[in-house]
Known about the structure:
Blueprint: E1 4-7, E2 13-16, E3 19-21, E4 30-32, E5 37-40, E6 42-47, E7 49-50, E8 53-54, H1 62-69, E9 74-82, H2 86-97, E10 107-108, E11 111-114, E12 148-153, H3 160-169, E13 173-176, H4 183-192, E14 196-197, H5 214-220, E15 226-230, H6 238-248, E16 253-256, E17 270-273, E18 276-281, E19 284-287, H7 299-310, H8 314-319, H9 323-329, E20 345-348, E21 354-359, E22 362-366
Parallel strand pairs: 1-4, 6-9, 9-10, 9-11, 11-12, 12-13, 13-14, 14-15, 15-16
Antiparallel strand pairs: 1-2, 2-3, 5-20, 7-8, 17-18, 18-19, 20-21, 21-22
Helix pairs in contact: 6-7
Amino acid sequence: MADLHIVGGSRDVAIVAGRVADAPASGSPVLDARGLLVAPGLIDLQVNGAAGHDLTTCPERIADVARHLVRHGVTAFLPTVITAPPDAYTQAQRAIGSWRQDGASATPLGLHFEGPMLSPRRPGAHPVWHLRSAAVPLIEGWSRAAGVALVTLAPELPGAAVVIDELRRRGVIVSLGHSEASLVETRAAVDAGASAITHLYNAMGALEHRRPGLLAAALAGTVDVTCGLIADGVHVSDAALALAFRALGADRIVLVSDAMAALGLPLGARTFLGQLAVTLTVDGVRDAGGRLAGSAAGLDVGLRRLREATGALVGDVLATATSTPARLLGIDDRGHLGVGAVGDVVLLTPGLDVVHTVIGGRPVSWFSARQLSL
């Protein structure tokens, strides 16, 4: 870890031995941030891959993905494994257990298992042949201590409430998604311990005024949850982004990229999401049937899109990718730049282009992600 003094930007930040301090150490290197916004490093809770690497099939490439993410201002993330055979989850746990920070990469804060307990009626791009019923034996070995931070499941599955309660007891955050749950089923899941909803609007029942479900429960505030939201310009329209932001506010929205292996690749590139072959097109990442299969946009793109769609204050937009995800994870030394926080910082233009990313007091990128077309 390093010392650094960031000066001249929207705020001065002193980092000593990798942590935010109340004063710089004598002789600290100085980073001139004049004209830039100085913010906590971004936290992305849904990253399926990047730079051609798929984390479901190749979790051992977490380090490669982590190095790429800093280009987008991301300093911490949840490697995400979609619906897959049981050994894929075990391999991912082994991979994150052997992670070693190199001082130039985003830090994995635990795994996000998106599946396999999802509704076969709302699988999205997940392989339906690997979907499973909700059952406690299926989550054997899944705990926060064993590297699992978040699990997405469909609350309407028989046995879901028992699984949710068990995961909560093990310190795992449960998010509801890939679901056609009714309002009653949604409430029951939250009562059992679920505290989030995965990629609001996507892979869930539509907003029906006579048959409210997961989406209505979230937007109406019927349940106390934090909602993931993809703002890549493809998954959710600007009007729907604005609706969600108005209904929920910055403290109940977590901006996620849902990035997959196509992040950082050129248009036309073919790659994989799990075992699914996909192509990066001008209209997003699509499978052979035209279904969306994750995103090729970084979290910084989502920040800009969310601001444009909502007209929200920059501080509120940044909160959706900093303080709000940190609070959902129960982490108190990330998502802010108070004394004692991890010295991970992102410097952005007023238009929210990434200029510098700092990891533990060490600047590791010096460019604009938009200029590099990543």
